[in-house]
Amino acid sequence: GQVQQVTTFLAKEDINIATMQLYRAARGTDAVMVIECDKEVPQSVITDLVELGGVVKATYLGLKED
Asked: Which of 11, 33, 46, 59 is the most exposed place for a label (fewest CB within 10 A)?
């Protein structure tokens, strides 16, 4: 359910996922989702992601411009 919830939310925000990786130590434990997007993700979207049920933390790493 969590993967679907996050991907559906990003799709509604018109944010395309380029790659996604999911890690967890064992069944039933917390997971880490790493998502690479095709465009910059606004801070408001990151904030809203944390408000989704089950999302503990969302961190955005953008490209550093010269």
From this structure: 59
Render pLDDT for 20-48 as a digit per residue (tens, 0 to 9).
999 999 998 889 999 999 989 999 999 99
> To the nearest 5 percent, what fractions of the chain are helix, strand and coil?
30, 25, 50
Q: In b/e form, how buried is each residue of 33-62, taking b as 16+ CB within 10 angstroms?
A: eebebeeebeeebeeebeeeeeeeebeeee
pLDDT of residue 11: 95
- Give the SS3 label for residue 4: helix
If we measure between CA atoms, which residue out of 6, 61, 1, 66 comes closest to residue 33?
A: 6
The C-alpha atoms of residue 15 and residue 38 are separated, in whole angstroms, by: 7
The residues with which 20 forms a beta bridge, in sequence order, are 35
